[in-house]
Amino acid sequence: MKEAGVTLLELLITISIVMILASAAMPLSKMITKRTHEIELRQELRRVRTAIDQFKVDWNREGDNLTGPLCSKNKLTCKEVSGTSGYPKSVDVLLKVELTGDQATVTGKSIWRYLRKIPVDPMTGKADWRWRCYSDPPDTESWCGEDVYDLSSSSKELASDGTKFKDW
Q1: How far, in Å, CA of 79 to CA of 98, rounded?
Q2: Is residue 133 domain-resident?
Q3: What does the alpha-carbon distance between residue 126 and residue 78 come to, in Å, rounded to a whole number?
Q4: Do the domain assignments include residue 14?
Q5: Domain range spanning residue 61?
Q6: Into how many domains does the chain fold?
Q7: Which pTM value belongs to this model?
Q8: 62 falls within a domain
Q9: Residue 4 falls inside a structural domain
Q10: What's the CA gap between 100 and 112, in Å, rounded?
Q11: Of these four, 59, 117, 150, 168, which has the most CB atoms within 10 Å of its CB?
């Protein structure tokens, strides 16, 4: 009578094959995760930069010359929320701008929001972005605090293409 079953040798060979396949899949899995975070980073950078650019269009000013449509109708608010370059004075301004002039009564809209919240940097897992002022050089390590012109990741890692995340 012949018994059906698996020999120890067959079991060891099967386990070895599974381990080889799993070891090949691990680096691929890590690369896919990193690429996903890189795509998320590009999306968040684009979203915040678009909000900054839209703020600049609405609240633009060049020194005391108020040129943006919301800025010219809300002079007091404009000087509170936008720097002399026309960019937002702080990150919080992108979250909420309360109108004080005629525009609030005309449109019935008294609060403008450019972002719902400050996004999380996918590379660090925190909202710890590196901010840059309009007057700062592109490779600056510190934010002047006068306005918000741009942002970059605070991650020290390298991207899949060999560039630094902070340079994106």
Answers
A1: 12
A2: yes
A3: 30
A4: no
A5: 33-167
A6: 1
A7: 0.78
A8: yes
A9: no
A10: 11
A11: 59
The amino acid at residue 32 is: I
* CA–CA distance, 58 with 25 (Å, rounded to integer): 50
Read out DSSP for the chain? -PPP---HHHHHHHHHHHHHHHHHHHHHHHHHHHHHHHHHHHHHHHHHHHHHHHHHHHH-EETTEE-SHHHHH-HHHHHHHB-TTSSBSSHHHHH-EE--SHHHHHHS--EE-S-SSPPPBTTTTBS-PEEE-TTS-TT-SS--SS---EEE----PBPTTS-BGGG-
Q: How much is the average pLDDT of 2-28?
A: 83
Q: What is the pLDDT of residues 47-101, one digit of tens each?
A: 999 999 999 998 888 878 888 888 888 888 888 898 888 899 999 999 998 876 5
Q: Within a 13 Å sphere around the CA of 123, how many CA atoms are in the beta-carbon half?
A: 24
Block residue for tokens 């009578």: 1
